[in-house]
Amino acid sequence: MIKKERPSVVVASFSWPQSLPIVIDFDSTLIKQQAFFNQFDLPVPDADQMRSIWRKHYSAIQREVAILGYDRLLMIPKGLPPLPELWQVMARGFEPTWQGRNFQDGGSFASVRNASSRDSSSRLVLVHGVKELDQHPVLKATLGLSPMVLTGKSRQQIETIIRRGGNLVINFQPSGTSTLIKAQGLTLDEYAIFQRQWLTEGDGHLDSDYWSWLLSSYSASRLALSYWSPGSRQLDVSAGDAGGALDNLGCRLSRSFK
Fold it and tell me: Is 254 strand, coil or helix?
């Protein structure tokens, strides 16, 4: 039986609130991502592994792009250094990262645990390529919502998932719409990489107006969040409770494939 070859480009139409064509090119993304990791003397995405993941999940990737408007692909290679070291590399040239008291009490970077779907294996991660959360309708819909609202789970259920290292699935319907948003959060590792890639491409820093929940990274019984502080020229990292909500706090959504 001859296997059907998957295209190297995903083309989809995202239709909320209006139709928007989206194109993600695997080959050009691979070249850029390999160059980025090389620049920082880090393991590079393996072309064969990444292509295998792309082919395996091509239909699901196309579907996610059409439903939630993802327009950017992160390629996370296996063999990256532990989070404390990786964060230092990605924050090189910045002022030292500010760490909130809750995050420090949870053991700081060394004690962060990621959701089980975000292990150290190679993976592709779909994200929204916008600088601020209010620049994409799906991300804007997350502003002011707590993890309890974003996931439809109780505080106790979320704390149980965190304790077990499970996957905290985002599952909510924005007010005034018929769209059901099902997604994952980013990890601190992925966020650090995304932040630095965005800066390297000359587009400044992500999230200088809004904090973002990173719902696939856990700090003790809390959930990670981060922000770029333009006045201090530093990344800020903290951890919040399942019921925490602020008007200037939303969530970077994602979908991981491995």
Answer: strand
